[in-house]
Amino acid sequence: MKHLNKNRLAGKIFHLYIRLVGVSGRVEFRNLDRIRENTLLGYWHGDSYCMQLVLKEIAKEKKRIQVIVTADERGDAIEQMISYYGAEALRLPDGLKMRPFFRSLKAESTAEGNILATALDGPLGPLHEPKKLLFLLASEADKEMTYVHFSYRHVIRLKYRWDNYVIPLPFSRIVADIEDLGKINKTDLKNFKEYQQGLIH
Q: What is the pTM of this model?
């Protein structure tokens, strides 16, 4: 309980800080309309904090969004932060422990009217090496997939972390580019190593 309260407090502080960044800085969203209902949304793990700004924009249109979040303590603060934008956290264990939950995750991905989001290279990397999970879900659900990547000015990058986690400073310049990947077919999944290369920025 103590850890839970601590992480929730951290979530509130992180939320207030990203609000300060959003108000003081310049944030540009390119092709935001590509994030539609019945879409699966990917981003890089190191951009997770700035994804809060994208969630805030999506929330303005009252769209239902679910974000895959780790089930351990690291996910508590994230769940707290995204709740401010009406996003729902799907708490799942990392790695192979996720397998028993795949059926329920597949059901969520096929549900009508929602947006399912996750870090493409999360939760443990390697950096900018997309995992197959979201692409597989998109193919199974026969839904469009979009991809967000960021460019920045005036940020701190945590180089000691595998994901080079980005913390924007007040008065930062942030650009979120949304790309439409379309539908993922069986050939894309079969030749996934080749498909990955087109996503690396």
A: 0.90
